[in-house]
């Protein structure tokens, strides 16, 4: 358990020190081979699915189901990475690691950070969806 805590603290510091763009459009476009229409469709799906996942994470936290929190965060982290949502990816990574320590207050703080970043990401890409 001590190793996980050490990894969490070290990883969290590395993430916080990164200059992370909210949305890396170039990377997202490269993943869909420059197809802007496809990217728009994927962004719309990502926004809707992420909202549902975040709602589910709050429910899992109420149930103190840290194993499921870890699984959901891992999947959401991958989706965020694929769509170019770098800050969401970083927060999911921190929350995934924190869930291993079963520290509910830290998880709740990170959940709020995740929700806030989701709102900011959604706002930042609204023009992309038009």
Explain how this protein is built:
The protein is 80% helix and 0% strand. With 130 residues, the chain is mainly α. It has a single domain (2-129), classed as Four Helix Bundle (Hemerythrin (Met), subunit A) (Up-down Bundle), CATH 1.20.120.160. α5 packs antiparallel against α6.
Q: From N to C, what is the helix and strand string?
A: HHHHHH
Q: Characterize the quaternary organization of these chains.
A: single chain
The low-pLDDT segments are none
Strand fraction band?
under 5%
Can you give the helix content as a percent range?
over 70%
Largest sheet: none
DSSP strand count = 0
The CATH topology assignment is: Four Helix Bundle (Hemerythrin (Met), subunit A)
Shape: elongated
Helix and strand arrangement:
Blueprint: H1 2-17, H2 25-31, H3 36-62, H4 66-83, H5 86-99, H6 104-125
Helix pairs in contact: 1-5, 3-4, 3-6, 4-5, 5-6
In short:
The chain is an all-alpha fold and 130 residues long. 80% of the residues lie in helices and 0% in strands.
Which descriptors would you attach to this protein?
mainly alpha
């Amino acid at each position: 358990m001590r190793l996980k805590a050490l990894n969490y603290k070290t990883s969290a510091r590395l993430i916080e020190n990164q200059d992370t763009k909210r949305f890396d459009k170039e990377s997202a476009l490269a993943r869909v081979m420059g197809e802007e229409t496809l990217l728009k469709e994927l962004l719309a799906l990502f926004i809707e699915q992420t909202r549902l996942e975040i709602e589910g994470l709050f429910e899992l936290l109420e149930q103190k189901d840290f194993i499921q929190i870890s699984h959901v965060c891992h999947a959401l982290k991958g989706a965020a990475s694929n769509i170019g949502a770098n800050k969401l990816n970083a927060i999911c990574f921190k929350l995934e690691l924190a869930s291993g320590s079963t520290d509910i207050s830290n998880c709740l703080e990170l959940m709020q950070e995740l929700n806030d970043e989701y709102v900011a990401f959604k706002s930042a890409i609204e023009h992309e969806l038009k």
